[in-house]
Amino acid sequence: MNNETKLKEIVKEKYTEIANQSKQQNATSCCGATGCCDDDLYNIMSDDYKVLEGYNPDADLGLGCGIPTQFAKMKEGDTIIDLGSGAGNDAFIARRFAGATGKVIGIDFTESMIEKARTNAEKMGFNNVEFRLGDIDNMPVTSNKADVILSNCVLNLVPNKHKVFSEIFRVLKPGGHFSISDIVLQGQMPDQLKKAAEMYAGCVSGAIQKTEYLEIIHEAGFENITVQKEKTITIPDNILLQYISEKELEKFKQGNLSILSVTVFAGKPAKDSRNCCEPESGCC
Question: What pTM did the predictor assign?
Fold first, then answer.
């Protein structure tokens, strides 16, 4: 098993566990995944969805690090895709914007999450919200399908971020756009945290440098790249001490590392002038 496959299996295992527990249980874990954090981290990582139209508490597992739906410039009739859709929280809010004439597609690679989201959609009688099982770096969606793509604290869990943004470009219609909330870094993370599988599944050690993240988006062909919102994430000491010593913790606090939640917007050009080959060939 290669490292990329191993990391995916770690994430799938953790998020299967999350799908089968309550939001209250998830609220005491690091981005819902590590089972080791306190309420402070949950309050810092997540934003409050309760004030948004379309909010369904059954679909909110407390796993996000932003609210991309607030910035996504969705409109009635849009086809909207939510990457890493979980129990359907962002997808159901997006439906309020898409209206009866629009369509929302959620994609998640965890079977238990898909089952939970489909159950929630059936309870609410939504016939224009669909959930598909699949990897977001190999989406089960045809090219040029979506007007808008959303994602909330998910891309940091994917080892190959170049591939994900290439897929986002493929699936968006010309002139379409995305709004994605994610975790990025400024400064260097201690090796012990980088290597911790639990921290990876907890949305932290899978994060990359902010400059690299934005450059990947640029390289994928997107334009009008904008950071719509940014906030600092602080990991409580009791979490860090599970992976580093007290001496290392002091050094960590005095270092230059910032863990940031960012919401990023970018658009696919109305006309692609890059002279690329077909997406299947992998040369674009």
Answer: 0.85
